[in-house]
Amino acid sequence: VQLVESGGGLVQPGGSLRLSCTASGSIFSVYSMRWYRQAPGKQRELVATITSGGTTTYADSMKGRFTITGANNKNTVYLQMNSLKPEDTAVYYCNRIQGATGYWGQGTQVTVSS
Predict the structure, then answer these.
(1) Which of 22-37 are b and which e, b meaning 16 or more Cβ less than 10 Å from the residue's Cβ?
(2) What pLDDT is recorded for position 27?
(3) SS3 call for 39
(4) CA 68, CA 50: separation in Å to the nearest integer?
(5) What is the pLDDT of residues 80-90, one digit of tens each?
(6) Residue 85: CA count within 13 A, CB half-sphere
(7) pLDDT tens across 42-62, in order?
(8) Has residue 29 got a pLDDT over 90?
(9) What separation in angstroms does the CA of 107 have from each of 13, 43, 53, 114?
(10) SS (H, E, C) 7-68
(11) With the C-alpha atoms ordered 111, 47, 80, 3, is the resulting torsion angle positive or negative?
């Protein structure tokens, strides 16, 4: 399974970005997809999760600002990020778990700065 992220970039505080992650290869119909992020010098942290059944969960600090959604084809997941803050600056990674295996994308840089 290959995961390709896109949509990162430079945005001013208070702005918005939408990240995308598309999975290809041997795709299962039952899965969960997650967004993680890792800021310089910090551990990777979970941002949001969506399951193949449509259940979503969020880290407390992202609730109300970030929204995870899945495309109808079930192979793409989006992360809509609003009201961005400088502390949201990080590399954002897509993760897919299906069966007993997890897969990672290469990451996309998000920088929030004026």
Answers:
(1) bbeeeeeeebbbbbbb
(2) 87
(3) coil
(4) 7
(5) 999 999 999 99
(6) 7
(7) 999 999 999 999 999 999 988
(8) no
(9) 21, 15, 25, 23
(10) CCEEECCCCCEEEEEEEECCCCCCCEEEEEEECCCCCCEEEEEEECCCCEEECHHHCCCEEE
(11) positive
